[in-house]
Amino acid sequence: LIYTNAVFFGKIHSSSSYAPGQEFLENNIRVKPDLDALGALGDAGWYCIGAILWAMNQTLPTTVTALPNVARNSAGVILTCSASLYWEKEETVATFYCSFIAHETMDLRVYGSNGTCYLYDFIIPFGEDSASFNFTSGAKFVDLHIGWNVKPQVVEVTSQLPQEGYMIQEFANLVKAIKVSRSKPESKWPHTSRITQLMLDAVNKSIDTGFQPVHM
C-alpha cells in the first residue's frame, strides 16, 4: 500500500464466491439458520473482510453499508451479498462480494496513490506448490497514449507444503513456544478475529435495516 503523510488514497475490492451445487445448498451447515445463520457472509465474506482489514492495517472503517443485491434461500440464509466500507480519514473505499451461487472467485485488488496490487487466489491457491501476485508501481501512459511505461510485475512464492500443512506447523510452534518457552499468545490473532466479526455483524445489520449505513 502507498501512504502519503500517513494517509492512504485508494480503493480496495475483494471477492469470494463459489457454486457448490444443489446438494450443498440444501444440506450444508452453511445454509442452515440454526447452524450458520450468516451463510455466504459468514463463510466466504469472512475472507473478503479479513483481506480488506489486512490491507488497511486492521483499522475499522468509519461506516459500513450493505448493497441491495442480497439473495437468500427459503430459510432466510444469505446466499449472496456485497457491501461498501468507507474510511473517512484515509479517504478510502472498499467493496466486497461473496456468494454461494456464483462462479469461483478469490480476488483481492488494491488501488493506491502510486501503485496497484492484484491477487487472484488469495484463499485457496491455484496450485499447492506456489502462489503469486501482480503489482504495478509508477505506471504512466507513454507519448500519444500508445502504451504504458512499465508492465505489471509478478511475484511468485514457492511452497514445499500445502497451506494447511503450514497452518498446522505454525499452530504447533505457537503451542510449543507457550508451553516450553513460557511465551504469551500473540494478541494480534484474537484482535483480528474480533474486528472481522464486528464487520460481519455490521454488514448483517445494514442488510436487516434496509441497507442503511452502520457507523463503527
From TrEMBL:
Q: Which SUPFAM superfamilies match?
A: Glyceraldehyde-3-phosphate dehydrogenase-like, C-terminal domain
Highest taxon of the lineage:
Eukaryota
Please state every residue range assigned to the domain named GFO/IDH/MocA-like oxidoreductase. 20-116
Entry's family note: Belongs to the Gfo/Idh/MocA family.
What's the name of the protein? Uncharacterized oxidoreductase At4g09670-like
Source species, please?
Solanum pennellii (Tomato)
User: What broad taxonomic lineage does this protein's source fall under?
Assistant: Eukaryota, Viridiplantae, Streptophyta, Embryophyta, Tracheophyta
